[in-house]
Amino acid sequence: MTTWPKDELRKIAEADDLHISPFREDGATYGTPTWIWSVAVDDALYVRAYNGKNSRWYRAAVRRKAGRITAAGMTKEVVFEPVDGSINERVDEAYRAKYRGSPYLSPMIGPTARSATVKVMPRETDV
Predict the structure, then answer these.
(1) Side-chain-side CA neighbours of residue 88 (13 Å)
(2) What is the mean pLDDT of the chain?
(3) CA 49, CA 30: separation in Å to the nearest integer?
(4) Taking CA 72 as the corner, what is the angle to CA 92 and CA 83, rounded to the nearest 5 degrees?
(5) For residues 120 and 46, is the Cβ–Cβ distance under 8 A?
(6) pLDDT tens digit sequence for 55-68
(7) Do you know which InterPro entries this protein is assigned to (predicted)?
(8) Maximum Cα–Cα distance across the chain
(9) Given this model, what pLDDT does residue 1 score?
(10) Which DSSP helix (H) or strand (E) runs through 105?
(11) Engineered SS bond to 61: which of 20, 22, 41, 112, CB 3.0-4.6 Å?
């Protein structure tokens, strides 16, 4: 797994237009793009499923472990890694800072969405 170039991560983190498309079961076809919130913590991008672990995109991301995102005018091949533990407090802080004032913030830092936190990192592809 590679890390995000700082300028790309900053642009993605500042954008409000991230769409996530985990691979379908065949491992080659991308799923329907789903608009979700994203935040950056340190050198990583994090997303959460509003409806928790039952969200279709979350289940696909955890099962297939790869796909792509589109944000800030870029389309990137990525890998997905579910996370748990103390990083969630920092992800909560990032959500509070970025989405302050939104009526959807409370559910996004609540236990249902928090249980479905995913780290999104760039995926090396064959050129």
Answers:
(1) 17
(2) 95
(3) 18
(4) 30
(5) yes
(6) 999 999 999 999 99
(7) UCP028498
(8) 43
(9) 56
(10) helix 105-108
(11) 22
CATH number for the segment(s) 6-122: 2.30.110.10
Measure CA of the first residue to CA of the last residue in the chain; give whole Å: 16
Per-residue pLDDT at 27 exceeds 60: yes
Tokens (6 digits) for 54: 């039952």
- Residues 99 and 96: their CA atoms lie apart, in Å, by 6
Among 50, 46, 27, smallest CA distance to 38 is for 46
Q: What is the pLDDT of residues 104-126, one digit of tens each?
A: 999 999 999 999 999 999 998 75
- Supply the pTM of this predicted model: 0.94
How many Cβ atoms from other residues are within 10 Å of residue 25's Cβ? 10
Instruction: Specify the 3-state DSSP secondary structure of 76.
Output: strand
Domain ranges for the chain, please list them.
6-122
